[in-house]
Input
Amino acid sequence: MPNSSWPKNDYYRKTQIDQNGNFSNRSNEQQNDRVAETQKCLDRSQITQQKEVLSSHQNIDDGRRRKAALMSFLIWTTTIALHLLSWGYLVILGLTALLSVQLMRILFAKPKLPPKPLSEENATDWPYISLLVAAKNEEAVISKLVKNICTLDYPTNNYELWVIDDNSTDRTPVLLEQLAKEYQQLNVITRSPDASGGKSGALNSAIPLIRGEILGVFDADAEVTPDLLRKVIPLFVRKEVGAVQVRKAIANAGLNFWTKGQSAEMALDSFFQEQRIAIGGIGELRGNGQFVRLNALKECGGWNEQTITDDLDLTIRLHLNQWDIDFLSFPAVMEEGVTNPKALWHQRSRWAEGGYQRYLDYWQLILRNRMRFGKTWDLWQFLVTQYLISVAAVPDFLMAIILRRLPITSPLTVFTVTVSVLGMFIGLRRTRKQEKSIVKGEKLDFVSEKEHPLSILLTFLESVRGTFYMLHWFIVMGATIARMSILPKRLKWVKTVHKGDWES
Output
């Protein structure tokens, strides 16, 4: 990562989380002493591990293409070999059975209930929060975002909003200048035309200037409820938590087939986030609505400017550095879903490439079990179901035609589709049940309540429709990984266009 975008920052926060998990105020001198002492006490092996993670993302080059090509070659040859071996189908059945065991653990895990929100009684001890937004040509949504973020139910002198204008060519700079006069929390950074690093570089440029010990990152089309900070911050009381992801929801979900599919997809993602964390697996960042502990971010070397999905990359580096990522299901952060197949293709291709890149970049550290067994096993399972099956589909289909038999990976494909339907069904029911509980002022829990049979049927049909929509991932994954094996990727921030013509 270019040194220019990660300057040194010796400013230590006034508010800190003590060893008992309580929020307390400290002077800058005490902070400096504490940081210095903590650094001295770090185990030598831990420092070495941190350097390994930093080195892994600072020395990334065109080796990604070679690694992707090698992986594709291995998947193709293995798939063909399994067709030719008499016991090849048994290998696939064994792998499916192994994955099914993990699925059972996920399905029957009980997520922990969220902690109580921050209380007014100790408002003077609430930590200082810095919220970041990287904006590029966002004139349609930026005003709404700033007004939303600057009116949160949190002391105005205890949080700040930094909007990084990444060389916008529309009216975004003008609007930000006007908004800065109206809201005292708003600070604006304008990047030069020759600034590098894309979204990651934009976020990194704000780090030397911020005051918060916890950072929140939002997309320009985000909309949150006033109580968000008061519900997110208590999750950081547990000292192992390096980041928290807030559940995402689609604001324009009812518009068409594509937005309805994305809404169901978010319910599926929410379900798996909670369940994976519950069994000691991996929690993942999703960009919009992510909160990160500053010292955890600095330990990882900041946002990686050599990736196109900063959130997924940071996810792996946090876990490699022994941090946990927690998840907040309520309230959700609303965002604008893409409304047509072309926009969906471009967005998902970027997500697919960034998600696969992290395996190519950090495979050695992952194989060394740096994240420990539970997380490594969880990550491996999702590598198989999300990526490897899609790559194997082409040689499997060709061999099935040649040998006149069913595709040998059929059990894995059926398994993946079944997981999607089940996860989406449970996720949709859970989300709606909890929404009703909040409206009624009832306690949040994960115990199923009696529902009308028609409601259950409609939710199931919605899950089937959502799974049909999710089939686009097979094509996106296969095509993206094939392209990664042949063509180098230009590290360019290709943003999703936000129209702002929706009502939450």
DSSP finds 16 helices and nine strands in the chain. Residues 50-117+227-493 form one domain.
